[in-house]
Amino acid sequence: MSLAIRVIPCLDVKDGRVVKGVNFQGLRDAGDPVELAARYDEQGADEITFLDVSASSEGRSTMMEVVSRTAEQVFVPLTVGGGVRSAQDVDRLLGAGADKVGVNTAAIARPELITEVAQRFGSQVLVLSVDARRCPAGVSTESGYEVTTHGGRRSTGIDAVAWAVRATELGAGEILLNSMDADGVTGGFDTEMIDAVRREVGVPLIASGGAGRPEDFARAADHGADAVLAASVFHYGTMTVGQAKEALRRAGHPVR
């Protein structure tokens, strides 16, 4: 029997408030993270992802107090990322109430961080966040997709598919694949990118970036996503977690 497709609201947090923009630009306030997390828990979210979107660019750690307050109100698995640079950071986040921890920028700078975390806490704790885009002019990779950092503001020239493969070999237990081109645009997930990574990676794959309609979630699952993540469509009332799950169910995908 197939595993249930998970629906995951994402709380992008800056200065203690949930924010959302388009392609990580023009961020606007979307509410209190604790209140939103509790709402999504009530709606039937399978997990909640909490990302401090300014942690890496501003050179500071994830706000532990907000993580702790959110964890107290949420009774589904909580993934936390943003500014995670060491196994000690992971230890502190798990202590604050996180179930899984996302790494991104620091793992690109020092890939052995993935192995250190996986060996100490287990691969199931580690989610590699890949902020990928189609290669712009002047950048070329074999897959046609490039990894970016710092909220999509910095090019790395690293092949996104090859990086996902390497990270799983190093110990990453899940891949959170975020399309920077589609982020906040609500035109649908980048299914070609999902296909490219799914062909090469066997660990659970979370599709992120672009959800606009309930049917978009089903389409991502059709292309091999094990979980579907969204932010603005949930924050601004475009749809509920239940409506996303109903679309998945109608398309023949098992949900909880």
TrEMBL record:
It is an enzyme of class 4 (lyase). IGPS catalyzes the conversion of PRFAR and glutamine to IGP, AICAR and glutamate. The HisF subunit catalyzes the cyclization activity that produces IGP and AICAR from PRFAR using the ammonia provided by the HisH subunit. Keywords: Amino-acid biosynthesis, Cytoplasm, Histidine biosynthesis, Lyase. GO terms for biological process: L-histidine biosynthetic process. This is Imidazole glycerol phosphate synthase subunit HisF. It comes from Actinomyces bowdenii. Belongs to the HisA/HisF family. InterPro entries: Aldolase_TIM, His_biosynth, HisF, IGPS_HisA/HisF, RibuloseP-bd_barrel. The keyword Heme does not apply. It comes from the Bacteria. One of its GO terms (molecular function) is imidazoleglycerol-phosphate synthase activity. The active site is at D12, D131. Pathway: Amino-acid biosynthesis; L-histidine biosynthesis; L-histidine from 5-phospho-alpha-D-ribose 1-diphosphate: step 5/9. GO terms for cellular component: cytoplasm. It catalyses: 5-[(5-phospho-1-deoxy-D-ribulos-1-ylimino)methylamino]-1-(5-phospho-beta-D-ribosyl)imidazole-4-carboxamide + L-glutamine = D-erythro-1-(imidazol-4-yl)glycerol 3-phosphate + 5-amino-1-(5-phospho-beta-D-ribosyl)imidazole-4-carboxamide + L-glutamate + H(+). Pfam families: His_biosynth. Its main location: cytoplasm. Coiled coil: none annotated. Its EC number is 4.3.2.10. Heterodimer of HisH and HisF. SUPFAM superfamilies: Ribulose-phoshate binding barrel. It is found in: Cytoplasm.
